[in-house]
Specification:
The complex is a heterodimer of chains A (525) and B (335). By secondary structure, chain A is α/β, with parallel strands linked by helices. Chain A is 31% helix and 25% strand. Chain A contains 17 helices and 22 strands. Chain A has a six-stranded mixed sheet with strand order 6-7-8-3-9-10, with helices on both faces. Chain A has a six-stranded mixed sheet with strand order 16-17-18-13-19-20, with helices on both faces. Chain A has a four-stranded antiparallel sheet with strand order 2-1-4-5, with helices on one face. Chain A starts with a strand and ends in a 7-residue tail after the last strand. Chain B has a two-stranded antiparallel sheet. Chain B is globular. The chains are: A alpha/beta (525), B mainly alpha (335).
């Protein structure tokens, strides 16, 4: 019973246009195990599971479920076969209750009266069994990300699945929520479920998984029992032979010294009591004060949607502050437009690359000069020197490892990771006194992430100031000198590098300032 | 290699639409080969045919640009007709009111009158978009209707030509007529100006900083705004430029061909301009070539109707089919 193989994927192959997403990948899942599917971005983890869930069609290969070869037509079919998936982005209706979201799309007994006592009872039983504490009558929009994820898991369990796929489930969870999730997963496998845990975070698979399969560039590299292998084996499997792990920042173990504020002069960039009220009257940022010195990387941690985006846009000058002051090198820049800021030495990597940062319909070259197009070296203000642009762009493409046929290729043809590299190249290629990077490594594989970290540290060494907003707490703790935690538009605390502690930051991320004391009682529902 | 590759779907689309039209013509009982010969070669057989083609080419080119320039910034200008009429009115106004100026002054002023008239007609929807975020497609279309009333007012009102049977103004001063390059049949200098405008637009979009900003705005207005481009100004600029170009077409019609303002002078140039712009996929550099091709078809079509009694609508079908097939080839390639 223990080692019974419930699911097997054999020699699966998937090709998108010209890129081979999966090449001869095999994967087995045993009953009652948590199987980690580990790999960097673009390794093919999600593609593999989307094939299993019926979202993509495989080009070649076999899926064998409980000894029977099957062909999965779509998610509905997958659920029918007992396979459930929790996506990175939840598909929930925010003004419906938890219960309504869970039963949506299933047969309801009392279709016309919508009396769902029986269903509610069933969901509550599930909650209790698996330690998923959610109140079924709560409305989705009032829940935290962690709770919404529980709803998503309940959705799958309610449909009676016995194989659960979790795609990067810990993104956006606080460390405490991660621990709770892992406990629930343990209960589930003890009850006989099998779980596939997709992630790029090595520490997490090591702490929760029984077996681990590593994918890299669409190939499966190895499958190992957790207890049989050391961390180094997995690191090497994830990144391949080429990467220099010794000098990497991603896997660095020794402690870097934090920036010493006592010897610094004046900050490069300061926010003084900045507030922002959105056009529909909602207060998004409350009284934020923050300063960044040259040679310092300041991080903003927080669960997504707590005002990070507004903070980024206020700093970049995309939206005006409602009150407060912005100061750059002792000059008041509160009312400068973003165009002026870009020229006085700001650079910006926006979070949402497809809407905020990238011209899908324009060429790679046109993308690389966006924002720099009015000044040297690309332009004399009136005419753009396309020859210069193309020669510079060819260099950037090489340096930043952007996979494209050349500067004249249309941006929309690039993959997500390459689009991100274009944005990175654009922000880093010209020197800037203050950089604002919002999730700069999203969608990048590990060597590319490491490259971005090297670049950020190079800025630090060159005495430039950097504000790094990230959803990835590990990333922040890896390279920041200070981390400010944002919660509902407020900075709840700023920690210096010596004080970094995952759980302390996690507490602040969920709005708890001193031990177990929620701030502003009543605002948390 | 890549240019050849890119041209293949277009060639296929043209061939396919001719095949489809050929079937229709054959079903109607006409000689297909002769019909196609007429459509394709009328423009090149006689000097007259060629000049007719160029005269068609001028407004088609300008009206297509009036559509594609705003499209560069991501805005849809469906008001080329109204802007052309407004330009015609502007030109007629100058030509009639300042009739005693010498030609050296009056000709440029008449042209300028057209440009200003068209630009104004593009400016109002642009400002409504800028100030109140009113969709430009809606306003530009509505402004077409306004212009119809306006031209009716001028042609039946103060400058009415009582001797004419059709609503028409009196002729503009002879000093305001566009000089001709060829006397008989007359080909006015509008052809040179139109080509210069097309080249100018190409240089503007491909080389200048503002042109780049306009392309960026069209590619992603949100990202452009985040990176410091004033996209709303780009919207206004593009719509005003488009209006000015359409207005120029109106001025040429008044000062070059009719020498007066005539109701109905806008013909079906708007729709043809849209078709040309769409076949070119909004590429300003491709517009002149497509516009010329469509002019050849148009002139061939009227010849076909005259000599073979095949309805001229046949060519509209061909043009529409080319557009359909070009769009289809896109979808097919994406699959």
């Amino acid at each position: 019973m223990e080692d019974q193989i419930i699911l097997e994927l054999k020699n699966v192959r998937k090709v998108f246009d010209q890129t081979i997403a999966l090449d001869n990948v095999s994967f087995t899942l045993k009953r009652g195990e948590i199987h980690g599917l580990l790999g960097g971005n673009g390794a093919g983890k999600t593609t593999l599971m989307n094939i299993l869930y019926g979202l993509y069609k495989k080009d070649e290969g076999e899926i064998i479920l409980r000894g029977q070869p099957i062909n999965i037509q779509g998610p509905r079919d997958a659920i029918h076969q007992g396979i459930g998936m929790v996506h990175q982005h939840f598909l929930q209706i925010s003004n419906f209750s938890v219960l309504e979201n869970i039963v949506l799309g299933t047969e309801i007994k009392n279709k016309f009266t919508m009396k769902m006592d029986e269903e509610a009872q069933k969901v509550e039983n599930l909650c209790e069994r698996f330690g998923l504490d959610v109140n079924v009558t709560d409305v989705i929009s009032s829940l935290t990300v962690g709770a919404r994820q529980k709803v998503e898991i309940l959705k799958a369990l309610y449909r009676g699945v016995d194989i659960l796929i979790l795609d990067e489930p810990t993104t956006n969870l606080t460390p405490q929520e991660v621990d709770a999730l892992f406990e629930s997963l343990r209960v589930m496998v003890n009850e006989g479920l099998s779980i596939v845990f997709i992630t790029h975070k090595l520490r997490e698979v090591l702490s929760v998984c029984d077996r681990i399969t590593v994918l890299r560039e669409g190939k499966n590299i190895t499958t190992l029992e957790r207890k049989d292998a050391s961390e180094e084996v997995f690191v090497r499997a994830m990144v391949g032979e080429k990467m220099d792990i010794e000098h990497s920042i991603y896997f660095a173990t020794e402690d870097r010294k934090a920036f010493d504020r006592s010897k610094a002069g004046t900050p490069k960039f300061t926010l003084e009591n900045v507030s922002y009220i959105s056009s529909d009257g909602i207060s998004k940022l409350k009284d934020i004060s923050l300063d960044i010195y040259g040679g310092e990387i300041v991080g903003i941690a927080g669960v997504a949607g707590n005002g990070q985006r507004e903070l980024a846009e206020v700093v970049a000058g995309v939206i005006p502050v409602s009150s407060g002051r912005k100061v750059f090198l002792d000059k008041d820049i509160t009312h400068k437009t973003n165009e002026e800021l870009l020229h006085t030495g700001f650079s910006y990597v926006p979070e949402d690359r497809l809407t905020d940062g990238f011209l899908v319909k324009a060429t790679v070259a046109q993308n690389l000069i966006l924002g720099h197009h009015r000044g040297k070296p690309y332009s004399d203000g009136k005419f753009i020197d396309w020859k210069k642009v193309h020669s510079e762009c060819t260099e950037h493409i090489k340096e930043y490892n952007i996979k494209t046929s050349g500067p004249a290729e249309i941006g929309g043809n690039l993959s997500g990771g390459n689009i991100q590299r274009v944005m990175i190249a654009r922000a880093f290629c010209l020197a800037s006194e203050v950089m604002l990077a919002h999730n700069p490594t999203r969608g990048l594989d590990i060597p590319s992430m490491d490259f971005v970290y090297q670049k950020l540290l190079a800025r630090r060494a060159a005495n430039y100031a950097t504000l790094l907003i990230s959803e990835d707490l590990d990333e922040l703790m890896r390279i920041c000198d200070r981390i400010a935690v944002i919660y509902r538009g407020q900075i709840l605390g700023i920690l210096a590098r010596e004080e970094f502690d995952k759980y302390a930051i996690g507490r602040l991320m969920s709005g708890i300032t001193s031990e177990n004391q929620p701030v502003a009682e009543g605002t948390i529902s | 290699m890549t240019t050849v590759k890119r041209a293949i779907p277009y060639l296929l689309a043209v061939v396919a639409s001719f095949v489809a039209a050929g079937i229709f013509i054959a079903l109607m009982g006409f000689n297909v080969v002769k019909a196609f010969e007429t459509i394709l070669f009328t423009s090149f057989r006689t000097p007259n045919g060629f000049i007719q083609t160029l005269l068609k080419f001028i407004p088609l080119l300008l009206l297509a640009l009036a559509f594609t320039i705003p499209l560069t910034a991501g805005k849809f200008n469906i008001g080329g007709e109204g802007q052309m009429i407004a330009g015609g009115i502007g030109a007629a106004f100058v030509g009639i009111m300042f009739g005693n100026l010498p030609a050296i002054l009056l000709v440029p002023l008449v042209i300028l009158g057209g440009i200003v008239g068209g630009a104004l007609w593009g400016l109002i929807p642009a400002l409504l978009l800028y100030k109140f975020n009113i969709n430009e497609i809606l306003t530009t279309v509505l402004f077409n209707f306004l212009s119809l009333f306006l031209i009716d007012y001028f042609c039946t009102g103060p400058w009415r030509d009582p001797a004419a049977g059709h609503p028409t103004t009196i002729a503009i001063s002879k000093a305001g007529w566009l000089p001709t390059l060829v006397k008989n049949p007359p080909l006015h200098i509008g052809i040179i100006i139109a080509i210069l405008v097309a080249i100018g637009i190409y240089i503007f979009t491909a080389k200048t900083t503002s042109g780049y900003e306009m392309i960026a705005t069209g590619a992603n207005p949100r990202a452009s705004r985040v990176f410091g481009i004033k996209v709303k100004n780009m919207f206004v600029l593009s719509l005003v430029l488009g209006g000015a170009v359409a207005g120029l077409a109106g001025a040429f019609e008044v000062a070059g061909n009719q020498h007066r303002l005539i109701e109905g002078m806008q013909s079906n140039f708007l729709v043809l301009g849209l078709i040309i712009g769409l076949i070119s996929k909004g590429n300003n550099a491709a517009v002149p070539f497509v516009a010329f091709m469509i002019s050849v078809l148009e002139v061939g079509a009227s010849a076909m109707q005259r000599t073979m009694m095949i309805p001229v609508e046949m060519v509209f079908i061909v043009e529409a089919l080319i557009l359909l097939f070009v769009l289809l080839s896109d979808v097919v390639r994406r699959k």
